[in-house]
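[agent] plan:
  1. take the single chain provided in the ticket
  2. run structure prediction with default settings
  3. attach structure tokens to the ticket
  4. add a short note for the reviewer (M.T.)
[agent] executing step 1
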Amino acid sequence: MHICVIGGGLAGLTAALRLSESHEVTILERGEVAGGCLSSYNLPAYAIESLYHHCFSGDDRLFSLLEECDLLSDLEWLKGSTGYLVNQRIYPLTTPLQILRYPLLTLFEKIRLGLFVLGSRSADPEVLDSVTAKDYCIERLGDRIYSSFFEPLLSSKFGERKDEVSAAWLVSRISIRSDRGPGGERLGYLKGGYIRLINALLSKLTATGCRIEMGHPVVSAYPDDGGWVVDGTRYDCIISTLSPQETARICSVPLKPLPYQGAACLTLGTPIDPTNGIYWVNMGDPAPYGAVITHTNLVPSDRYGEHIVYIASYFSDSPPENCENVFLSDFCTRFGLQREQILWHHLRIEPNAGPVYVTGYKTMMPEPNPVPGLFIAGMFSIENYPERSMEGSIKAGEDIARRVMEWSYI
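[agent] step 2 finished; step 3 output follows
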């Protein structure tokens, strides 16, 4: 059986890997490099992900895939710190003592917040799919705790759509990030970057005879005599890892669109640590971006010879106008850097960075096999609900491959 995989991100590569040993597989990827949202910039001295990434202690499928690629021993566990920038000052909120010292909440509010977090870890996301995170927080904590603690988090992840996000996403987020010690959150990062995982998958796929076509955006696909024709080539079936609306447009099938958002992420190098040792800073003050992530406050900067910073913003329809210059100008002013201290910078605009987990999202997810011979999987799949991750994308890829193999035996 000849299978076409549309999209060379983590879900597509994983699905292709599981199928290529027993079937002929072709991957069509619109970008010039593989990896999708896990792709990297190749700089002169090192490679770095174009969008920030780390993993969590419960990511078992990721660990299995790393072991399969002989990379698991290079996964290291580091301490992730967090903070809020409010009133032009960064407040660290990593340790219990730092949270106790946070001046924008009273001691009683901090106790309420702590009990809320503990209780949310055991909450059932399915029950909360119809409740907004905003209402969930305000009902249990009040406006002040919500606006000073949770609203910046929602803004950094969902931008102007923050008020639509379900409480299912919030409690899942709290649960997945519950591996904490006195010194901070335990986060995983692959030495040398996740480009090593992508390259290992490409090497394995090439060894099985899988054909990988980079720079190939799919224009059209249609059913034909029990199979599918994709850009003039006939296949027995298709796996699309694109958003449902993109798959519907290309394949002319009735798939209900899901709420998606785009990302504008500026990555830069600088000799200065702009966030005072803190890995992830959410913007509590008004800013043209939602978060500043200093990668080298998670991974030691001496591995790179400089600090690496991500400036992250999400959008619904189109990216902010002239966002590269706007981000740079605001960042330098707000964090006290001179423009010449920005050694390099790259902007990535990703129109379909991921779904927005609005209320009712669980009922919107499409079937994985909506029409004969067409299979769909990716960030929108049940495996990535209600929080997308590398783990979820690997699960989605492996599970859709299993469905294809079962279908091929019918």
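[agent] step 4 note for reviewer: The domain at 95-182 is CATH 1.10.3110 (protoporphyrinogen ix oxidase, domain 3).
[agent] ticket updated
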